[in-house]
Specification:
By secondary structure, this protein is mainly β. It has no helices and seven strands. The strands form two sheets. A five-stranded mixed beta barrel has the order 1-3-4-7-6. Strands 2-5 form a two-stranded antiparallel sheet.
Length: 77
């Protein structure tokens, strides 16, 4: 199988950093967050079928995979 289209492995940060949700993040849909002054696509690091994080909520940014930040809900770290 060709690995050309395989996503890069995630890079997990040593310490999580806060981000603010701009568009909702859910199991099936990436959202957008404001992180360190820029807007980024974001998805859950450990998805949960029942979890949706609405805009204006704070999340913990725990890593990055390609150009997508990996987040967990605030208080889950």
């Amino acid at each position: 199988m060709n690995d050309f289209f395989a996503p890069p492995p995630p890079e997990i940060f040593r310490d999580p950093v806060k981000g603010i949700v701009e568009s909702a993040i859910s199991l099936n849909f990436s959202g957008r967050i404001k992180y360190q002054g820029s807007y980024w696509e974001a998805r859950f690091y450990r998805p949960s079928a029942t979890l949706v994080i609405p805009p204006k909520k704070t999340v913990n940014v725990v890593g990055i995979q390609g150009l997508t930040l990996l987040v967990i809900p605030e208080g889950d770290y």
